[in-house]
Amino acid sequence: MKKKQAKIREKNKQDPRVQKAWEQYANAYSYDKIREYKKAIKELTKAELIFRELINEGQYQYRKTLASTLADIAIIFRKLKRPEDAIAHFKKAVDIFQQLVNSGHAQFQSNLVSILGDMGCGLAELGRFEEALSYCEQAIERYEQLIDVGKLQ
Q1: pLDDT single digits (tens) 46-93
Q2: Residue 62 belongs to domain spanning
């Protein structure tokens, strides 16, 4: 297992796509800070495509990064007052984080809680209150589980 992890780390060092994706992420962060939201989405979308490509090649360690990228895109869509686009990206992020948590990666439970809450808020903004309530209840339930196991106070 350690040899496999070392090979993955070595491949990532050599893979210029990884560096490019992180550069695009940094650019998006800068654009977000100066309220150039459309440019930020363009950069994050490029990074998303790279992370998807890496995952499709079996580099599954980028699943969390992909989910976070999708959530960041959703947040920017909310800033642009494009709630339907935001919901679509939050949903994709929720799906990935749920898969990770359900497959034994409990360390991503807090990420999932946060995005479930964001999803609920976005749905409420659209007047889809029953759906919003469902996501908020899931977030609360998972948050309480984190408290019960001592991960949060």
Answers
A1: 999 999 999 999 999 999 999 999 999 999 999 999 999 999 999 999
A2: 2-148
